[in-house]
Please model this.
Amino acid sequence: MTTTPTTSAFTGFEQKDFDTFLIEGLEQRMAAIEERIRPKFRYLGEKLAGDIAVQAGDEMFLHIAKHARRTVNPPKDTWLAICNNKRGYKAHPHFQLGLFDDHLFLWFALIYEAPNKSKIASVYLDHLDEVIAAVPSDYALSLDHMKKESKAVSEMSKQDWVNALTRLRDVQKAELLIGRHLPAGDPLLHDGDALYKLAQDTYETLMPLYRLAASV
Model:
């Protein structure tokens, strides 16, 4: 039986956690996710949900990916999500923290299941300068939560932002995720307190985008 780490016991993520996604077989990989990663997600997620609730002025709920629909192929990543809906997060603006085999990601996310993402995209386009100003240059942007690839915000022109938001508005399967990547070898990942603070700061930075989305 797994237990939630205490504050003193939580030391961040180690290489073994990232190596989980190299394990062959669905059952074997899922067992490793349950043993190695989910206790850390519960610890981080519960703390971050409380922080985000204060910033957002709304109750927030923790969701941990179950990968329940998988029957053959093991997941290539796993994550926690935090949103203001107790039943699920996919249809709502939400915050994510998760792992691929080579990096940790921290996102504010609008994924394709969100029924009002087109309206949110329109609001972002109407407040384009405000949206761009809210995102630091060392952050990244992804257009697909299932892929590792992302684009550095520092490399994005204003037209790149327009293109991404127009696509989010007009394409049913389009997504938008904004935040940070930390490579698996980053020493900060081994410091539980520092990692928590980084996640807290990241979500606070992205809160203006959440508030705009939540206003729709």
